[in-house]
Amino acid sequence: MKPNMAFIQSLLFFVLLSNGGSCKYLFPAPGASRNTITVVNDCGFTVWPGISGSPLPSITGFELTAGNSRSFETPENWSGRLWGRTGCTFNGLGHGSCKTGDCGSGEMECNGGSATPPVTIAQFEIHKKFSEVVVSYDVSLMDGYNLPITVEPIDLSPCFLYGCPKRGCSSDLNKQCPKELMLKGGGGCHTPCQVFGTPKYCCNKAFEPTSYSRLFTSACPRSDSLRVSGALP
Question: How far apart (Å, rounded) are the C-alpha atoms in residues 77 and 30?
Fold first, then answer.
């Protein structure tokens, strides 16, 4: 759907893929005075997006059934994280937990809680300063992996000049995850640092590539950051 350019000056396209289909997340940002994120679920299953950031948006988690969408607003200047929770069970009062990506709040809303590893996280920095907007985005596997995520900006004016390619991970790393890194019961893949906790597998000055790091890199070569900026129209 073509965004209304009178109110939306950029669009980030966020895609989660799974065995059951694909989940598409649309991110319009930033607007004249606020940022709106529209989440569209094209999966064949329900996903529970979790949201954290500074400052916190008014919505920090919700249920999104297959084929439906929901929008929420973020502050004009926002540093935030968004991830997909799976296998969630909530009662009528919104209390419960999720198999992957649980934020520890015990509720549908994360309320500032962070995602429990292993989980794939999309990260955003949106800042407006005078007549310039600066947007940076990346998909992080530092907390492990639970779902494929890619981020693609659409109709972001600096991209017309510099280009803003997709970033993220479109591969299903769960299918390639070694048994020793696999989340108990499946559905997620830990990093070797989370499992072993040794300098060999954790980033430091002596870090050298291992078979595990090569696996993550080859499956998700575009899970890095990109920074763009430009004048507002």
Answer: 9
DSSP letters spanning 51-77: EEEESPPS--B--B-TT-EEEEEE-SS
Same domain, 98 and 39: yes
Q: Check pLDDT > 80 for residue 161.
A: no
Residues 158 and 177 in one domain: no
Helices (H), 81-232: 157-162, 192-196, 211-219
- The encoded tokens of residue 12 equal 């980030």
Same domain? 165 vs 188: no
Q: Are residues 98 and 164 in the same domain?
A: yes
pLDDT for the residue 226: 42
Cβ-Cβ contacts under 8 Å for 179 (sequence gap 6 or more) = none
Higher pLDDT, 233 or 113: 113
Residue 116 sits in the same domain as residue 191 = no
Span 19-54, pLDDT tens digits: 333 444 444 444 444 567 777 776 677 889 999 999
Full-model pTM: 0.81
Find out whether 10 and 28 touch, Cβ atoms under 8 Å.
yes
Give the residue ranges of DSSP H helices in the chain. 157-162, 192-196, 211-219
Q: In this structure, is residue 121 part of a structural domain? A: yes
Q: What total of structural domains would you count in the chain?
A: 2
